[in-house]
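note to self: dont lose this again. the chain is below, predicted strucutre after it. 206 aa total, dont forget to put it in the shared folder this time
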Amino acid sequence: MFNKPIVMLDFETTGLSPAAGDRITEVAALRIADGRIVERFVSLVNCGVRVPFYITQLTGITQAMVDDAPGVSEVVPALLRFIGGDTLAAHNASFDEKFLTAESRYLGLQPHYERMVCSLKLARRLFPGLSSYKLSALSAALGIRFSGSAHRAEADAEVSAKVLIHIGAHLARTYGVPHIEPQLLARVNGLSAARVPAFLRNEFGR
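---
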């Protein structure tokens, strides 16, 4: 299906913005190859910050869990090695990308992934008209079930990966795409939903 590996990333965090001092509390990175998840990197992260009560209510991640977790100086370098030069994907990718960039910068490191793909944007363009593209609503609409708790990194990353695999199958079935280049997904990301069908028919003859 995908002719190159894609790493699906998800962070749990203490808030919405690293610029406001928010930090990561958990990460999951799942490598997709041959239409399935083949490798996982999952860890809680101790960034030395307080976990707000509302975040614990949302995610179930407590202060004690974070305090006992490996430090950010251990987790982030290992995460960057795991990602390597593969294409990176996330659901609402700008959120996860800004935290990856910020946490790497704190350590004087630089990610080397090839490109970023957003599964939320892809779903908006390929499945227009859905009532919501939040991960829980989108996965339900596509018939994809959570295998763990929502708002935990591994469960969210796994469902996001399954959404991306579903998107790959849709492209193959509907437009006859034989092997899906990550670059094609990035190009679809950059189009409006109205332009996507004509673009794909022109590219693949359907």
